[in-house]
Amino acid sequence: MRTPSGAGGPARRATLSRDRVLRGAIAYADVNGIESLSMRGLAQELGVVPMALYKHVVNKEDLLDGMIEVVVGEIDQAQGTGQWKHDVRQRILAAHKSLLFHPWARAVLESRSSMTPAMLDYLDSLTGLFLAGGLSVDLTHHVMHTLGNRMWGFSQELFAATPKSDTESLNTQRNALPRQRPHLAEIAKAAAHADPSSTVGPGCDDQFEFEFALDLILDGVDTLHARHWSSARPTTTASD
Amino acid sequence: MRTPSGAGGPARRATLSRDRVLRGAIAYADVNGIESLSMRGLAQELGVVPMALYKHVVNKEDLLDGMIEVVVGEIDQAQGTGQWKHDVRQRILAAHKSLLFHPWARAVLESRSSMTPAMLDYLDSLTGLFLAGGLSVDLTHHVMHTLGNRMWGFSQELFAATPKSDTESLNTQRNALPRQRPHLAEIAKAAAHADPSSTVGPGCDDQFEFEFALDLILDGVDTLHARHWSSARPTTTASD
DNA sequence: ACCTGAACACCGTTCAAGT
DNA sequence: ACCTGAACACCGTTCAAGT
């Protein structure tokens, strides 16, 4: 025992590389949450002195950039069928799946000040699917914005936030809500009835909601495309 | 000079209140950015010892909650016209405007673990507009999700990120992009042609893009409503 | 009872001293 | 030349000592 690479103590880790640092950080964030990811903590997890990380990563921002690069790079790129709506749908659902797998990824991705190469590649391939389907450059441009844009100025999955089950929060959800927010209560009740499995939350099927919104947008785009929509002479937007 | 409340030194501030703390924090974040908002820095800005803040705010999370509460509470609630599509559009554009005014607000709002009363009130009033317009509870439910949902699993205004103008970044934008990301380059070129004012960015009209996406969704909803769409028997989603 | 300075347990990153 | 411990300049929050 006490030999430098003995079997008793903490195992001697393989030599560090950028990839090992990034994957270590991803695993750390998956397990402990992104808010508790620190350079010092990650170094300890990797069995390394904190400053050793700075050989592979210029600073914490670069670490976060790299983590996003790995996650976005892993988005499945299925073979296209040539039908743009199907192919776009498939690609976006693949991205959705990858990001769902790492709960911290969306917030980190949105906090990046500029896009990473993998992000640009993904966007470019998606753009290419629209153009290959015969959509105009003009329409494709605005569709890309539509897909990237959060509605209302803010955008997160609004009913997904599981409130802490402290007393006040439960009161708000169960008692105060129906009185003070009757409209929200009505749709929450209907959703809970449709899926009685969840007792306190509204019991929404996140995947259904995601696909509903995606299809609504893609169908709307299809309509505009068929009408030869152009930003120069907008026909309102879709119907009028 | 040196009198406790003299005219020479830093002016004696009015007594602290939760409102003064929250508005001080908002002003601080507007000027210095949310990332440099600290309890200690805010206290100094308010001419107060750090621990004094904890009389009005339970911790930093509560401070952030309160800031969001103020911003969301300031969303303009125009008088409704009775036409649901118009009224919803107006309310959402008002929210968009309020959040644009505080660049940090979207990220902070999305980072909240549960909704604040003002957020719930806003959502309830929006839900009420759909229901008053005759949309089914079912459709209204999914529409609320659609508006709240970011497309693709991630969602920020994708082309809004103004990259730092360091050399590498400019290279990426100007030279590498057309070669490596031809599709993105094509729509960027078209957009720059339409609006030659911005030299490096794609020159997109953010407000136009926001309204395009909003109208696309609202028009799609209108179509589903006219077809008596129900999640029990979805007609695909819209057209087929 | 209220207020607050000092202290605690952290951060990311710099830097100079070691090999 | 490389590596790394200590140090620097911060955090949010606790706590005990002061009034």
What report would you give on this structure?
Chain A is mainly α. Chain A folds into 2 domains: 10-57, Homeodomain-like (Arc Repressor Mutant, subunit A), CATH 1.10.10.60; 80-158 and 179-240, Tetracycline Repressor, domain 2 (Orthogonal Bundle), CATH 1.10.357. Chain A has 10 helices and no strands. Chain A is globular. Chain A starts with 17 loop residues before the first helix and ends in a 14-residue tail after the last helix. Chains A and B meet through helix 4, helix 5, helix 6, helix 7 and helix 8 of A and helix 4, helix 5, helix 6, helix 7 and helix 8 of B. Chain A binds a DNA duplex (19 and 19 nucleotides) through loops.
